[in-house]
Amino acid sequence: MVYRLLAYLETGILAMAISAPFAMTTLHLPIDRASGIPIYRQIYDGLRQAILDGVLRPRQKVPSTRALAEQLDVSRLPVLTAYEQLLHECYLEGRIGSGTFVSAALPDHMLRSPDAAYRHPRPLPAARDYGGLGPFRTSLPALDQFPQALWARLVARHAHAMTRAQMAYGDPAGVVALRDAIAEHLRAARGVRCEAEQVLVVPGSQAALRVAAAVLLARGDGVAVEEPGYPGARAALTAGGARAIPVPVDEEGLRVSALRTRGRVRAAYVTPSHQYPLGTSMTAARRLELLDWASRQKAWILEDDYDSDYRYVSRPLGALQGMDAHARVIYIGSFSKVLFPALRIGYVVVPPALLPRFADARASLDLFSPTLYQLALAEFLREGHFARHVRRMRGVYLKRRDALLTGLARHCSGRLFVHNADAGLHVTVLLAAGMNDGDVVARMAARGLTATELSACYAGRTRRQGLLLGFGGSTERRLLEATRILGETLSQ
After folding, report:
1. Do 191 and 259 sit in the same domain of this protein?
2. Nearest-angstrom CA–CA distance, 140 and 413
3. What residues does the HTH gntR-type domain cover (predicted)?
4. pLDDT digits (tens, 9 = 90+) for 337-387
5. Beta-bridge partner residues of 92
6. Which DSSP state fits 351?
7. Of 385, 415, 446, which one is at a domain's C-terminal end?
8. Which residues contact 244 (CB under 8 A, 6 or more apart)?
9. pLDDT tens, 247-272?
10. Are residues 191 and 317 in the same domain?
């Protein structure tokens, strides 16, 4: 439609700004008083052509004659004359008490549009499916257990109390109260060494990585990523032209010895508390080795602590950043998995020397995060609701993880093998020889199950075949039923 409107502007016939279908339409009819063509005829021709071209659609409301006359700065008489002719020829129809509309009875063969590209000769692609709420959806928390009534009260309270200053543009770094609360939580629960001034609020971990890449990486720079690793991180870090350099992981985490052979690397992205996707935790020795590498190479470490709150075989591990004596670690986290994804609040803890550059890059991302949710979340943290929620959810997720493991043992024995189930909201399983995880995921989708193939997490050619089975968003009963369906699928 944009192209038709531009064409009308260029020819002086008609320009239109159209609202939702069947709603009132604002018309802009450039009137050429020097053309010698009567004004009523210019209005008639413009409206008729717009209807025939499909710019004005059947049953779409047009302005009243009085309103259009005011818009065009002409008397009402030529508008009345144009409308009368269009009504007589059945291009328009009047509805008593409702107004004037484009006729719904125009023959289809009369309607045409020279701009075939705009008229979409082929159906539009379906909206992308992000996995919904189906069983085994990874990264999905227990939305049924979230204290929604409490959260609604906090949001409503702050919505009613928002000042004019809070309704204006906010600080790109985030609301001060939230930055204070995040810093306090990270110091106590994760062993992160930071002050509130080092915390920048962002829409999520992906946004944090984009900001970090904008500051730390130039086109052609090498950034080390875990192999296998999180595909979203690779995409975010290389969007500006940096090169992803896969570095293998083993049972102790990223292999720093292999990292040293990769030449000049500007930064390394790691998930040390719960490696994505294999689930292992980086050992203390390997952490110290990585920190020594960063210090010697003057490189940066991007620590993504994406779901460190939930461990089932030990207490939560401290952050790598807390061991850093040389301020080389940028710490990234979000509330998507611990609260709910639609909250869209994450954070990045930045070494003091990098703060000015990170602040500028964060502001250029989207100016600032929505203030209302930041205010509500600050209170949620400050009043202890967050800590209580996390403690309660550890028990919920332990039961759900155990139900998944029970179902896998009962229905999928011999066809897949559990690789790691120590922490987080998903279990990593390896498929029996001869199975293709992409084919398995497609067959699962046909049965209403959602999973992520392990092979998609590899950047190189060597790819293990397996599945990432999320359990956070499904009840124990639903997980047991889903494993039965998975077993049937694998038996095919």
Report:
1. yes
2. 25
3. 37-105
4. 999 999 999 999 999 999 999 999 999 999 999 999 999 999 999 999 999
5. 102
6. -
7. 385
8. 223, 225, 234, 237, 238, 459
9. 999 999 999 999 999 999 999 999 99
10. yes
| CA gyration radius, the chain | 30
**Same-domain check for residues 400 and 317:** no
462 by Cβ neighbours in 10 Å (0-12 / 13-18 / 19+) ranks as exposed
Q: How far apart are CA 220 and CA 235, in angstroms?
A: 14
- Do residue 454 and residue 370 come from a single domain? no
| Close Cβ partners of 261 (under 8 Å, ≥ 6 residues apart) | none
* Among 113, 112, 116, 90, residue whose Cα is nearest residue 103: 90
Q: Which amino acid is at 363?
A: A
> Which residues are bridge partners to 270 per DSSP?
303
Residues 401, 377: one domain?
no
At 108 the pLDDT is 53
Comparing CA positions, the residue from 375, 369, 339 lying closest to residue 207 is 369
CATH number for the domain spanning 90: value is: 1.10.10.10
Three-class SS of residue 158? helix
pLDDT score for 25: 58
Tens-digit pLDDT profile for residues 287-338: 999 999 999 999 999 999 988 889 888 777 789 999 999 999 999 999 999 9
Tell the residue number behind the tokens 């080389």, with chain if given. 328
Whole-angstrom distance, CA of residue 272 vs CA of residue 278: 11
Q: Which structural domain range is residue 232 located in? A: 162-385
64-101 CB burial, b ≥16 within 10 A, e <16: ebeebbeebebeeebbbbbbebbeeeebbbeeeeeebb
Q: Which of 239, 236, 242 is nearest to 218 (CA)?
A: 242
Task: Report the alpha-carbon distance of residue 119 to residue 113 in Å, rounded.
Answer: 7
In order of 280, 282, 319, 421, 424, the CA distances from 313 in angstroms are 12, 15, 17, 9, 11
Residue 153 token pair:
């009260």
